[in-house]
Design brief:
There is one protein chain. This protein is of the alpha+beta class. It folds into nine domains: 2-145, Rossmann fold; 169-232, Dna Ligase, domain 1 (2-Layer Sandwich), CATH 3.30.1490; 478-622, 3-Layer(aba) Sandwich (Rossmann fold); 630-647 and 747-859 and 901-944, D-amino Acid Aminotransferase, Chain A, domain 1 (2-Layer Sandwich); 653-742, 2-Layer Sandwich (Dna Ligase, domain 1), CATH 3.30.1490.20; 978-1009; 1012-1075, Trypsin Inhibitor V, Chain A, CATH 3.30.10.20; 1081-1157, Trypsin Inhibitor V, Chain A; and more. Strands 14, 15, 16, 17, 18 and 19 form a six-stranded antiparallel β-sheet that branches. Strands 29, 30, 31, 32, 33 and 34 form a six-stranded antiparallel β-sheet that branches. It starts with a strand and ends with a helix. Residues 346-360, 781-799, 899-955 and 1237-1261 have low confidence and may be disordered.
Length: 1261
């Protein structure tokens, strides 16, 4: 069955739709369906998209194509609508670069059914549903009528009120009312009706776009900002624009370009009552700059999205638990609500970033409420589903209030389809993985379309065909090879491992050949435990959350009821034996459970060869290089030294052991500084490519880095972390060795690029390997990191792009060929097998010669959606599922080859890995027959051999120093006595002498005519006094500069030329600079420009003559210490949102800051067992500790009892302030707890009998 995946669209949620369409494409069961990509552009063109473009991070990366874009000196990235009014023929030229345009009438020729992954306008408003109905094409989700209701928040509220659903107080404001009325009057009316805080929503946008929360302290100014934001309007005073620097103006326009944070283009710009449409950011920047030059100080620019909102919904704030719940239609016609997910967010508004970025909000499924209250939420969602007439599936957001009411506020006909979205996590709770859920949605949507249009015979045919294919798939399910996806670990890369594993699972879940099984490795090295995970845990955001669920499973009682209600769905579409809790496994059990293993581990745990050795012993094939090659590549020193002996240039390296530091810290640091210069790079010798890799620019940073790497196990190293400016949650692993390297620079090259290149290996008929090198990508940002916005929202688009090595194609190809040869040679030397990525610096010189300096070879590359490996493979023609299957197939084939061609028994075996690093001892490598390279190089690899503690020993320093000094001295002496140097030296000396004589002669002629006087000292004088004094001596004073300094008296001269006491002619002009009377006004820098760090921000302020002071420190263990929350100027609160729009203050002003602190002293563990929750919470906060996870099925949390705490109470035990304490609650007093005392008995009063009676009569109070 051909499934057309519709994604993209014209709405502000197009990037989420693009990512959701990719998720559907990756997860569709390829045994049942043939996916057809139908990209809907912002002009509503249907495009049969070339699949390679699907793996770009953002739509703007490929559409419109680069050749269609106008020049943009500031590098603005734009969507198609920024190209202006395009005639059809120009649209056609653009579309042909990415695919093929089709009309709506041609859709039936290409697809049998539509899977709608569109959001917002032309996705959830009923328009495309009407078009598909007219074409007779079935589609997923609800029909036109329900979609129209679900799209408009104001219509929803009216209808839900009629149907008797509770809702908050609301106030509907139209754009016309806002523009015509007085803002203060509307503000007062809204406050009178709704109180504070006020939630502000656009009426027809996604649930999190343009949303603001107005608090009382925000006042009228905050209210105006919120309304304008919801209407997508900005007001820019001309004086503020003039005061911005060129960088700040460009940054502001860039913010406006964002389609969710800003206004987007095209834009209506009103100035002097004239409105014009501006399509491109460069045009806007030019217009604002040019008009500001002729505008008055009181003029305004009014910027408004051309596709603005017409209505805004204001609501009273609901205090309660926020949730989201998926409702499904079952095949028997009944509806069932899945377990609702509680959203624990960091701010009051669940905005666009919090909804889609992992880590900004925590999700708990099911919501932490008693069974009866969860069922009340589910019943309300099921009722609304039926009342409005939703079909197939829908998502409902809402709040559960403390008084037990369920508020539903945002029905969605198309749920978010990202990998860890509510749709998939809630379906996982009943045993369905994403592939199985999508199959169910397609099946039930077909049934809904047939019910709505009984006369459509083709719908019945499609239903019968799908039923037949499902039956065949179940019959052949046992023929699929079971692949265990092994991920997790305790390395800093463990969260990347989760992302990689989830991506690999998606690609294999719909495979014809393979059945994936998630396997999680928990615990520290030496104490690790293997688990088979239920699909729900694979969809968690990070590894630590998975570990927490493994250690504290505690399934909610409501889950048994929900799974029973969904048993028919799970039986039809789910696995034969679904699991819902982690199952511990022994490695020895793996051969009975799986046919192969896909290693999705990163860092030392997966790449140092130990796991590969264990799998070899079990006879299980796996992906990537074998144990021996993996061990070498995992060690950055050993791998690069091996390449160096084979002729590769590498960075200068110094490898030192902890014992060297313990023997003498000063000698340790001197040794590093004598062999390397600042800045240098410090990194762990083993581990991931970015973990604890830092550029060190001073002795202070070198010392901090070393102390942090060699710190004792229980020490946090807070002072060193501050010196290195580590983020609050940035991990820094302890190791016994540090590798210091020189920082590579261009070194005279005309082009200097940092690249990452992937590769695949293939067997040739003779058993040798062919290496396929991918086109490398340029690493734009140091450290290979993408921000969360880049990974999930495609916001900044800092993603690495294909590297370009020349302006001319022939230059680029020439460099690319040399680079590919160098990378292949390095891969062969290190015996890379299967796949890998190579990080390197490339120098290209004027003569087109290329020097490739390898940084690192990764034997198990990142396979997450944010990696560069999958897009590189796509450009080579590998679809992601084909790529994963090819990697697996090579591992399977390698195992078969190893069995058929065993290694030479006489070859020297590799020794076991030592407990710490030791001196390298090169070993000749005898490769297996199947791995004989096409080209023979020198020593292929070297192995670590234990000789003595203390790590690798490079050449002794003094020997190295003597050799280097002798070599440099010889080279310098040869240069100094060379004829060319002597000739040039003589010429330079002659020129200097001639210039000296000419200058002195001219100066004598100049100073010998006329009278000369000694120049008085005017510095420190008032300008008026200096003018009077100058007139008496026949001097003229001209003020050439003025400067405001709050610490100096105005009109005082602080500089003059000529200098005091010099000789000057009579009538000479004296140029002076004075302190200004009035302070300059400046635009304050944004907080993000200083990373929200108070120390960094104050440096910027002091340069602008602004005085920062700390008004208050607020304890916040979740943020880095000294993070800025907000600040005040003359009592006015300044927020980050206001700064982004421009805040102007006079120089010399004082700003009062509210910043965070992270208290780090230790406090005793409080004894919380037997106490009520409210008392326990008071004790925790009073000790500057934090409440962690709360477990327990209780209705009233405040009156519940604590029956267990983590960490447990031990008299005298101390923990750091700010640490979290987990609480386990029960509704009744735990057994063994003493009776509670009446408060009156605590004053020493004596009515004991009354206290006894009170206690006996109110035991459960």
């Amino acid at each position: 069955m051909r499934i057309g995946i519709f994604f993209g669209g014209p709405s502000r949620e197009r990037e989420i739709s693009f990512a959701g369409g990719r998720t559907v494409y990756d997860n569709l069961d390829r045994r049942l369906f043939q996916p057809v990509l139908i990209f809907v552009d912002s002009l509503r063109n249907f495009i049969l998209l070339d699949w390679q473009h699907l793996y770009h991070q953002s739509i703007r990366d490929f559409y419109p194509p680069a050749e269609a874009l106008p020049p943009s000196p500031h590098g603005f990235q734009v969507y198609l609508e920024s190209l202006g009014e395009l005639p059809p023929e120009k649209q056609e030229v653009i579309i042909q670069k990415v695919g093929k345009r089709i009309t709506s009438s041609e859709l039936p020729q290409h697809i049998d059914m539509a899977f709608l992954a569109l959001h917002g306008l032309y996705g959830e408003d009923g328009q495309i549903q009407q078009e598909l109905d007219a074409l007779g094409i079935p589609y997923t989700g609800s029909g036109p009528k329900a979609s129209q209701i679900g799209m408009d928040r104001s219509i929803q509220k009216d209808l839900m009120g009629v149907l008797g659903f509770p809702g908050p107080k609301d106030y509907i404001l139209t754009r016309a009312e806002w523009l015509d009325a007085n803002a203060s009057d509307i503000y007062q009316e809204a406050v009178n009706q709704l109180g504070f805080p006020i939630a502000v929503h656009p009426a027809r946008q996604g649930s999190s776009i343009g949303v603001s929360l107005v608090e009382e302290k925000s006042g009228l100014e905050g209210f105006e900002l919120a309304i304008n934001r919801a209407l997508f309007r900005e007001i820019v005073p001309v004086y503020e624009w003039k005061d911005r620097s060129d960088y700040e103006r460009t940054e502001y326009v860039q913010l406006l370009t964002d389609i969710w944070d800003g206004l987007g283009f095209p834009m209506d710009v009103t100035f002097h009552s004239e409105t014009r449409i501006i399509y491109h950011p460069e045009q806007l920047l030019d217009f604002l700059n040019s008009q500001a030059q002729i505008a008055g100080e009181g003029d305004l620019f009014v910027l408004e999205s051309h596709h603005h909102e017409d209505k805004v919904v204001l609501e009273s704030f609901i205090d309660g638990k926020e949730f989201s719940c998926i409702v499904l239609r079952k095949e028997d016609g009944m509806v069932v609500a899945l377990p609702p997910t509680e959203i624990l967010k960091g701010s009051e508004v669940f905005d666009y970033r919090a909804k889609y970025l992992p880590g900004l909000s925590k999700q708990v499924t099911p919501i932490e409420l008693p069974t009866e209250q969860i069922n009340a939420i589910r019943a309300a969602c099921e009722r609304l589903f039926n009342e409005i007439g939703f079909q197939a599936y829908a998502r409902f957001d809402g709040f559960f209030s403390p008084d037990g009411r369920v508020f539903l506020n945002d029905p969605n006909t198309t749920a978010i389809l990202l990998p860890s979205s509510f749709l998939y996590t809630q379906a996982a709770a009943i045993g369905l993985n994403p592939t199985q859920l999508l199959t169910f949605i397609i099946r039930i949507s077909l049934q809904e379309r047939l019910a709505a249009s009984p006369g459509r015979e083709q719908y019945s045919v499609l239903l019968e065909l799908l039923a037949q294919r499902l039956h065949e798939a179940r019959l052949h399910a046992s023929e699929r090879k079971r692949i265990g996806i092994l991920f997790g670990g305790s390395e800093p890369e463990r969260n990347v491992s989760v992302e990689s594993a989830r991506n690999v699972f998606e690609k294999l879940a719909g495979s014809v050949q393979y059945e994936p099984i998630p396997l999680f490795l928990a615990g520290q090295p030496g104490k690790q435990q293997l688990y088979q995970l239920p699909i729900g845990l694979l969809l968690r955001n990070d590894a630590d959350e998975i570990v927490q669920k493994i250690n504290n499973p505690r399934p909610h009682r409501v889950m048994a009821d929900i799974r029973s209600q969904c048993a028919d769905i799970t039986a039809q579409y789910g696995p034969s034996g679904p699991i819902f809790e982690p199952i511990p496994l022994r490695f020895e059990e793996l051969p009975q459970m799986v046919d192969g293993v896909f290693l999705a581990l990163h860092g030392a745990i997966g790449e140092h060869g130990n796991l590969q050795e264990r799998l070899d012993a079990l006879g299980l094939p796996y992906n990537g290089s074998d144990a021996r090659a993996s061990r070498v590549m995992a060690n950055k020193y050993q791998a690069l030294q091996t390449l160096k002996r084979n002729g590769f240039p590498i960075a200068n390296q110094v490898l030192l052991h902890k014992s060297d530091y313990e023997a003498g810290a000063d000698a340790f640091f001197s040794r590093v500084e004598n062999q390397l210069h600042y800045p240098m790079v410090g990194k762990p010798v083993e581990g991931g490519c970015s973990s604890a890799v830092k550029v060190l620019r001073s002795r202070n940073e070198l010392e901090a880095y070393t102390r942090l790497m060699f710190r004792p196990e229980a020490e946090a190293g807070l002072e060193a972390r501050r010196t290195l400016r580590l983020k609050a949650r940035e991990e820094f692993p302890r190791q016994d060795d540090i590798l210091f390297e020189s920082l590579l620079t261009a070194g005279g090259a005309s082009l200097f690029v940092e690249i990452t290149a992937g590769l695949l290996t293939h067997y040739l008929p003779d058993g040798s390997l062919r290496y396929e090198i991918f086109h490398p990508t340029e690493n734009i940002a140091s450290g290979h990191f993408l921000s969360p916005e880049d990974n999930f929202l495609a916001k900044k688009n800092a993603r690495a792009q294909p590297a370009i090595f020349g302006k001319k194609p022939e230059d680029h190809q020439a460099v690319l060929l040399q680079l590919a040869n160098a990378l292949e040679r390095a891969a062969r030397i290190l015996n890379v097998q299967g796949y890998a990525t190579i990080d390197a610096f490339v120098r290209v010189y004027e003569d087109r010669s290329v020097q490739t300096t390898i940084i690192e070879v990764n034997s198990l590359p990142d396979l997450s959606t944010a990696s560069c490996f999958i897009p590189q493979a796509a450009r080579q023609g590998y679809r992601p599922h084909e790529l994963i299957e090819r990697i697996l197939a090579f591992g399977m084939e390698s195992r078969e080859e190893a069995v058929l061609s065993p290694k030479n028994e006489s070859a020297e075996p590799w020794p076991a890995a030592a407990g710490h690093l030791t001196s390298p001892d090169p070993l000749p490598f005898t490769a297996p027959t199947r791995q004989e390279p096409m080209i023979q190089y020198g020593t292929n690899m070297e192995e670590i051999r234990p000789e003595r503690p203390g790590g690798f020993r490079p050449q002794p320093f003094w020997e190295y120093f003597r050799e280097s000094l002798g070599h440099i001295t010889r080279e310098v002496w040869l240069f100094l006595k060379s004829p060319i140097f002597l000739r040039n030296l003589a010429g330079i000396a002659g020129a200097i002498l001639l210039l000296f004589f000419l200058t002195t002669g001219i100066m004598r002629l100049y100073t010998r005519h006329g009278e000369s006087l000694q120049v008085p000292n005017y510095i420190g004088m008032d300008l008026e006094d200096a003018l009077r004094k100058a007139r008496k001596q026949d001097f003229k004073i001209v003020v050439i500069d003025s400067f405001f300094d709050s610490n100096q008296e105005a009109n005082t001269i602080y500089q003059q030329d000529p200098k005091p006491l010099q000789r000057a002619k009579e009538g000479r002009t004296i140029y002076v600079s004075k302190y200004r009377v009035m302070a300059d006004s400046i635009i304050l820098p944004t907080l993000i420009s200083a990373g929200y760090n108070y120390d960094q921000y104050t440096i910027k302020l002091k340069r602008l003559d602004i005085m920062p002071v700390i008004k208050e420190r607020v304890f916040d263990n979740k943020q880095e210490e000294n993070s800025i929350l907000y600040f005040y100027h003359h009592g006015r609160k300044i927020t980050d949102d206001m700064l982004r729009r421009g805040v102007k203050v006079p120089k010399g002003s004082t700003l009062e800051f509210v910043i965070t602190e992270r208290i780090t002293t230790n406090v005793p563990v409080p004894d919380l067992v037997c106490k009520r929750y409210d008392a326990a919470a008071f004790l925790i906060s009073g000790s500057n500790l934090a409440i962690g996870n709360i477990y327990g099925d209780v209705g009233d949390r405040e009156s519940a009892y604590v029956y267990r705490q983590e960490p447990e109470y031990v008299p005298g035990q101390m923990i750091p302030q700010g640490q979290q304490i987990n609480l386990y609650l029960t509704a009744t007093r735990p057994s063994g707890c003493p009776d509670e005392l009446d408060p009156s008995s605590l004053d020493g009063g004596g009515n004991n009998s009354q206290d006894e009676n009170s206690n006996n009569g109110n035991e459960d109070f």
